[in-house]
Amino acid sequence: MKCPVCLYQDTKVVDSRVASDGLSIRRRRECLKCGFRFSTYEEIEILDLTIVKRDGRKEVYSREKLIRGLKKSLEKLAITDDRFKKLINAIERDLQVIRKNEVTSNQVGQIIMKHLKKTNHVAFIRFASVYQQFKDVQTFQRELNKLLKNKRGKKKSK
Ligand SMILES: [Zn+2]
After folding, report:
1. Within a domain: residue 147?
2. Domain for residue 4, yes or no?
3. How far is the CA of 15 from the centre of ligand 1 (A)?
4. 26 CA → ligand 1 middle, Å
5. Domain containing 145: what range?
6. pTM of the full predicted structure?
7. 138 & 66 share domain
8. What's the structural domain count of the chain?
9. What digits encode the pLDDT tens for the residues 17-43?
10. How far is the CA of 39 from the centre of ligand 1 (A)?
11. Which of 3, 15, 84, 142 could form a disulfide with 31 if both were Cys (CB 3.0 to 4.6 A apart)?
12. Is-contact 29 1, C-beta < 8 A?
């Protein structure tokens, strides 16, 4: 890795920190020539994953697209960058676990919903309703009630 200041070819790693989920690593580097210190960030990238849409069209998996979709669901809701990164990692980990080169958009949607549910209830409801998993108002209401019940249950047990 080149030094961003003097472009010298050699830098040494002075510190490495693995994220708590073990899926990304931050390295502190120091230029061997000018002594400039900077960090690099490495994360796992999913390669060669194709999403098969409901109409049969295929599309290469894109993290950017996932991020855009999630940001829409999480709009105006409080979520830290760290929490957001963890959400992305958790979703991608599940995609990776399927171990297939092709997954359906339905599978992706299920995985996203599973993790959104744990992260933010409002975002989950938003995503799910856009995703048309709720076939009618009753199903939607039932899901909502389930969530509210769980929330209350959790508070009581504390
Ligand atoms: Zn340098």
Report:
1. yes
2. no
3. 17
4. 19
5. 50-157
6. 0.64
7. yes
8. 2
9. 988 777 788 999 999 999 999 999 887
10. 13
11. 3
12. yes
